[in-house]
Amino acid sequence: MGHPTLDPLAARLETDLRRRFPDVRVGFELDDDGTWMVVVTDGGAPWGSASTWFESDDVLDDAGTEGLMVDVATTVFDNLWPDDLHDPWPRCPVHGDHSLSIAVHLGRASWVCLHGRSVSARVGDLADLLELRGGLPDGWESVAARLARDFGHDVVLTAVPPGFDPAGDLIAVHVDGAAVGSFGFTYRPSDGPAAVLRDLRQRIEEVVAEELGPGRHP
After folding, report:
1. Predicted structure pTM score
2. Which end of the chain has the least Cβ crowding within 10 Å, N or C?
């Protein structure tokens, strides 16, 4: 039994979980009491099911839908995740020693690093985050932090699904929570980390300066 609100959420979470479990399936079922349950199986073997707060006649706006996505994903990780798996997953592609968390970030249910919110990707787009962030040199995340200090505004970088720019990955720039622009960026290891970070900062400065206007940036 499907539901127009729940089915897309199941597809988003299933897409990300398949990064680790190729045969995983995520779905929703109504129990005998009329409660919507999230159900997870892997290769036919059940992880189990858990209840959600969603009711069939609920009409959710975008914020409510993204909040439900966070709650469902959190329920799966807290209550249905296999007991014998203890390694961090998905592993933060910047710090490498902890898992990403799920939270509403910039209005979307997202994978985020709690140690630096410049690392984020919408639930359903985990592959884009891991591929983009895994290719950049250590220290790239500090570029956003330094820009936030220099500009006096909150500057956040967000991975955008590939396909918009055939020349490379697309990085969206948010200032004080509002999307202000984006640019294509391709990391070439032969350039060296220092050169890459200088180029990355310059590109972000151009986007942010255009938004903030003359005299409001370094």
Report:
1. 0.63
2. C
Of the ranges 16-25, 166-175, 176-185, the best mean pLDDT one:
16-25
Separation in Å, CA 7 to CA 52, 61, 157, 197: 14, 16, 29, 40
Are the C-beta atoms of residues 5 and 60 closer than 8 Å to each other?
Answer: yes
Q: Could you please state the CATH topology (level 3) that the domain comprising 115-212 is classified under.
A: Double Stranded RNA Binding Domain (3.30.160)
3-state SS assignment for residue 65: helix
Confidence category of residue 203, pLDDT binned at 50, 70, 90: confident
In 3D, which of 145, 155, 144, 151 has the Cα closest to residue 218? 151
Q: What is the DSSP code (8-state) at residue 92?
A: P
Q: How far apart are CA 145 and CA 156, in angstroms?
A: 8
- Inter-residue contact 217 to 150 (CB < 8 Å): yes
- Pair of tokens at residue 183: 């640019």
Query: Can you tell me the distance from the alpha carbon of 81 to that of 50, in angstroms, rounded to the nearest whole number?
Result: 11
**What residue ranges do the domains of the chain occupy?**
6-80, 115-212
Query: How many residues make up the chain in this entry?
Result: 218
Helix (H, G, I), strand (E, B) or coil at 150: helix
